[in-house]
Amino acid sequence: MLAIYPMLKAAWVVWFFLMFGFIIAWVLRPGRRRSYEALADIPLRDELPRAPRANRSI
């Protein structure tokens, strides 16, 4: 049992690094840019447009 632990510990680090790299590559791939931009606009959709301000000079 104790001889397996260091091997499992090293395998976990390698597995985590590979999964992290895969997730980063999946998120940053070029084809998803439009989708992410649309998702980023969701919180701003319910805001009313601002009324134009009059230019007041002192």
Write the layout of secondary structure elements.
Elements: H1 4-27, H2 33-40
What does this structure look like?
The chain has a domain at 1-28. Helices cover 55% and strands 0% of the residues. The chain has helices at 4-27, 33-40.
Describe the structure in brief:
The protein is an all-alpha fold and 58 residues long.
Instruction: Report the helical percentage.
Output: 55-70%
Radius of gyration: 25 Å
Structural class: mainly alpha
Largest sheet: none
Instruction: Give the number of DSSP strands.
Output: 0
Strand residue content: under 5%
Principal-axes geometry comes out as elongated
Order of helices and strands: HH
**Mean pLDDT, nearest integer?**
86
Low-confidence stretches: none
Instruction: Work out the helix count.
Output: 2
Could you tell me how far the N terminus lies from the C terminus, measured between alpha carbons in angstroms?
A: 82 Å
Query: Oligomer, anyone?
Result: single chain
Transmembrane segments: 12-28
InterPro entries: Cbb3-typ_cyt_oxidase_comp
Keywords: Membrane, Transmembrane, Transmembrane helix
Pfam families: FixQ (PF05545)
List keywords for this structure.
elongated; about 60 residues; about 55% helix; about 0% strand; mainly alpha
